[in-house]
Design brief:
- The chain is α/β, with parallel strands linked by helices.
- Helices cover 33% and strands 22% of the residues.
- The chain is built from eight helices and nine strands.
- A five-stranded mixed sheet has the order 3-4-5-7-6, covered by helices on one side.
- Helix 6 links the parallel strand 4 and strand 5.
- It is globular and about 50 Å long.
Length: 249
Amino acid sequence: MRVAIIADIHGNDLALAAVAAEIAAGVIDRVVCLGDAIQGGPQPAQVVARLRANGWPVVMGNADAFLLTGDDTSAEPPSAERRRVLDETRDWSLAQLSATDRDFIAAFPLTYTAPLPDGRELRCFHASPVSFDDILLPMSPDDDFARLLAPEEGVIYTGGHTHVQFIRHLGRTFFCNPGSVGNAWRHGQPAGQFRADPWAEYAILTVEEGGHLALEFRRVPFDVAEYRQIIAASGIPFAEAFSGRYDES
């Protein structure tokens, strides 16, 4: 069985379309989405339409919940300026969505479990099984993974949220983060020099009978010039600053 794992689309349907085309061209048995699908980009309605049409299960992310409620549940409250950006972008995003779209998002579960060969399971969530705000990074201590995941042999764990592709071994099993489809970026960039990456990230998990496992991290380039045009034409607030993330000059 081959499972494509996608996460953190953030309203970027151009990047999602590039990933969906690559998935369709391969041999993939199942696709799961780890949340933060809609809020934060210029194409929220288009992302909803594609996810609904494909019938892929989607778990609730913190940005999805914020879109519906307006409540920022992160551990560190944003600055006043950042809160203004979040609120105005949320208002615009909601205006693009129908009541049916909003009901679709509201139905996202907090976790999703997919059966795998040999009696294994793939446990899917946004940040951790207990909260879509938890932080798991490549440098996080083993104790954090043990506390938040309570790993069980036979269960493979996958979450997004931090936009970092990585794997962490957990005894005889592991956790993986597929990275971000719609807003890939490198951690540790200097202040004031933020740049987004011109590709979409995802992962493919292969599980075969007899305990054979493989995990592949993928990057799919998308047309950044076209995406900047989409941003400019969308009417999303702060479009110039948003588009500037992809300025390579």
